[in-house]
Amino acid sequence: MPGAPELFDLLVERGIPFALATASPIENVEFYLNDLGLKKWFTMDRIVYDQGILPSKPDPAFYLEAAKCIGVDPKDCIIAEDSITGIGAAINAGAGRIVAIDRSVSREWLEARKNAGQIHAIVHDFCGFERFL
Predict the structure, then answer these.
(1) Does the pTM of the predicted model rise above 0.85?
(2) Residue 39, pLDDT score
(3) Cα–Cα distance between 101 and 109 in angstroms, integer?
């Protein structure tokens, strides 16, 4: 996604811990790491994925586990999410800020959540994401 490499580099440069919480199985995670080049920024100890153990989103388990991986309280986390169930999981986890990505969720639904104070911002990609840090 546009802006993601620059964001990951900035997080590393600033020493800001980050993790990936995905409902994808290991096969997809391996694809992300190897074929999409995420291995540059992520190791398996910073990725929470579907191993058939955690309840599905909108349960907060994926995000709670990811916060634990980086040693940060969920209220101190910024979660970027692109799905309705994922946004629900971030809300249920008590995330400090939720930034919604509008690529697969209707803008109207997202605006309603933003107006209700459930999400902090709506973006189309990660370009300029540093303004939320």
Answers:
(1) yes
(2) 95
(3) 12
Q: What residues pair up with 27 in beta bridges, in sequence order?
A: none
Q: What are the structure tokens assigned to 74, written together? A: 């969920």
* Cβ neighbours around 29 below 10 Å, total: 19
Please state, in angstroms and rounded to a whole number, the distance separating the CA atoms of residues 121 and 102.
Answer: 10
Q: In which residue are the tokens 């580099």 written?
A: 9
Place of tokens 């169930």: 85
Assess whether the previous peptide bond of 55 is cis (omega < 30° from 0): no
18, 47, 69 from 9: Cα distances, Å: 11, 17, 19
Q: What is the pLDDT of residues 40-96, one digit of tens each?
A: 999 999 999 999 999 999 999 999 999 999 999 999 999 999 999 999 999 999 999
- Sign of the C-alpha dihedral computed for residues 92, 93, 94 and 99 taken in this order: negative
132 near 99, Cβ under 8 Å?
yes
User: What digits encode the pLDDT tens for the residues 31-40?
Assistant: 999 999 999 9
